[in-house]
Amino acid sequence: MKSINYILAVCLIFISFFSNSETIDTTEYFNKVDEIIKLRNVNLDSSLAKAKSLETQLNLLDNYPALKTHAQNQIAISYALVGDIVTAHKYFKLNTEGDTSKLSNQTKGSIFNNLAISYMDLGKYSDAINNLLVSLKYREKLKDNSEIAASYSNLGLCYFRQDLYNKALAVYYKGLNTVMHPVFKDTSLFTKIHNNIGLIYLDKKQLDSAEYHFNISKKYLETINESYDLCGIYAYLSELYLQKNDMNKAVEYNQKALKLAKVIGNDYDYYLSLIDLAQIYFYNNQFDKVKPLLDTLYKYYSFRKDKWQLINIYDFYADYYKKSGDYKKALAYKDSVIILKDSIFTSESINKQRELEAIYENEKQQLLIENLSKENEAKNAQIAKQNTQKIAFSVGLTLMLVIALISIKAYKNKSKSQKLITIQKNAIEAKNIEITDSIQYAKRIQKAILPPENLIKKYLPNSFILYKPKDIVSGDFYWLESVDNLVFFAVADCTGHGVPGAMVSVVCSSVLSKAVIEEKIYLTDKILNRAKALIIERFERSDQNISDGMDISLCCLNTDTLELNWSGANNPLYIYREKELIEFKPDKQPVGKSLKHAPFTMHTIQLKKGDALYLFTDGFADQFGGPKGKKLKYKPFKELLLSIQDLPMEEQKTKLENFFNEWKGNLEQVDDVCIFGVKV
Fold first, then answer.
1. Residues in contact with 26: Cβ distance below 8 Å, sequence separation at least 6, in sequence order
2. CA–CA separation, 320 vs 294, rounded Å?
3. Is 329 exposed, middle or buried (0-12, 13-18, 19+ CB in 10 A)?
């Protein structure tokens, strides 16, 4: 609820300007601007008072455009930080409306960036994105990674505010990679982007991932004692723990945020923390304290004309009145939410459409000019060739008559063949449609045997599944069953991929469930022995000699004692423990018909809290790619797993998937891919 505007404040603070026009006559004014900046970290009201004093002297700086821009920018920031977004926007806009030709690329990048932020605060996202792209153009010319990353951060915020989470995350990670470049490493901006990523995960209710990113920022900010930014991170953590139902920590961080914001005069984060305080009262049923806080917050955000936060406040009012039993007022505030959202997003859609139309018309006019030029050149060339063409026409006409006679005869013969080809083509297309429909139906059947994500999260909450079939359907599958305090889970690779592999996977999945649920076999080696017998029995009913089966990594976890039983058929198990990846070797035989008929082996492992398990098929390590188009193999796969151990499991999945796609590049995927990660 509060997080979005905090990012705006941060984005405004880190922008600074440098002038090439400084002379001895302007030193006094540079000092006045510097004083505004210095006071900002001590007391916002004092900083604003200095800004207002300088505001009356701006006309004296008309002959010094760089200095005037610098002054107007800092005046605007001072107004923005006390919540007067309208006045701030006025000064940001003045900076871009004047003659910017004498300004440096750095200055131009900053003024368009700041104007974009004020548009964002006013809910005008198309204008914000347009100005951010202009800013980015100037910053890329300078190759200044910190400033480029700042633009990416703000662009991500535009997407975030429109609930375009995937786009926002892509832009944020791009900014993170830019700012962490070894040559241009900027730890301050690094923490701000981590905050932004954490806010997305907070909004998506992926609370562990959000906590991970917030704690990275908190650790760094507390080390350098950066009070202003700490207010925001404490507020984020308060909301996070409120969502986790950890009321003690929610209250602890809320009090930290309120106290720190009051001491340094940070009104913005103070009011954001009041939202958290109101939520804490609300969840504790202290309704008599909620309404006065909501009224205070409404006045503050109305003054700021902050539509985005007003939507949240109206929504909070609706919840309050609903809980109080006043459904009429609750519905009225819900209507206000809808109206305010429409005022932002409906006008936004129109603006985007107009922008696209303007671009299209401009390109069309440019194309018209180019076509007219080409036509003029063609006409000149035509006149020069007319005499030659007259002669060529006579010869050509005679030749065409001869060719026509030959063609008529050939056409009669070809027509018969063409009819036959058309009939065959239609038959093939009909068969293709029938086959594709059958495959899509097979996909639905296969999906039905895979355990749904909510079931996996119920029994293994800290886990992920990376599942990438090579074709529409897959020979790889993952499997899960539970009996009392035992959770059985596996990853298997059946013979073949595509439709044949998918058919085998249905059989293999069913025999595993039969062994555990119907026959009550709970030891992993016995399960595989029984599954092997059932698979051979089912396939031997056919007159054909079928040798299909599966490679598998099968686990049984006792959730009370953390004892793990594991058996593997050609597929190993990796366990990460204390910075080491331990590999458990499988039996070298499949579950199915084979030359070897030895019983399977069971390994018993006592797990510890924090251990991570990885079950997988061979598709990831066998993928060809990289700069030389070579097979990845298992050593780099192990190194990749070791490199992501500090990340929450959902982010590990994202890292693995991104690595796989980048490694594969434009090459074809060679096999199905399935990885099951579980942290205990």
1. 61, 64, 67
2. 9
3. middle
The Cβ of residue 512 has, within 10 Å, a number of other Cβ atoms equal to 27
Q: Do residues 339 and 318 touch, judged by C-beta distance below 8 A?
A: no
Paired tokens of 429: 């297309």
Task: List Cβ neighbours of 64 (8 Å cut-off, separation of 6 or more).
Answer: 19, 21, 26, 29
Entry field: residues in the chain:
680
Burial 77-95 (b: 16+ CB within 10 A, else e): bbbbbbbbbebbbebbbbb
Residue type, 163: D
Burial class (CB in 10 A: 0-12, 13-18, 19+), 275: buried
- The 10s digit of each residue's pLDDT in 111-145 is 899 899 888 888 788 888 888 888 888 888 888 78
Report pTM. 0.53
| Side chain identity at residue 426, one-letter code | N
Q: What six digits make up the tokens of 594?
A: 């084979």
Count Cα neighbours of 425 within 13 Å in the Cβ-side half-sphere.
6
Dihedral angle, C-alpha 466, 471, 476, 480, nearest 10 °: 60
The alpha helices in 225-306, defined as continuous H runs, are 227-243, 247-264, 267-283, 287-304
Residue 73's contacts (CB-CB under 8 Å, 6 or more residues apart) are 15, 17, 91, 92, 95, 110, 111, 114
Nearest to 504 by CA among 554, 446, 581, 461: 446
Alpha carbon dihedral 536, 537, 541, 542, in 10-degree steps, equals -10
CA–CA dist 333, 318 (Å, integer): 5
Q: What is the pLDDT of residue 256?
A: 93
Among 36, 38, 42, smallest CA distance to 57 is for: 36
In angstroms, the CA 644 to CA 666 distance is 25
Domains of the chain, by residue range, sit at 451-679
583 bridge partner residues: 574
Give CATH for domain 451-679: 3.60.40.10
pLDDT recorded at residue 264: 83
CA distance 3 to 422: 63
CA 276 to chain centre: 26
Q: Is 585 exposed, middle or buried (0-12, 13-18, 19+ CB in 10 A)?
A: exposed
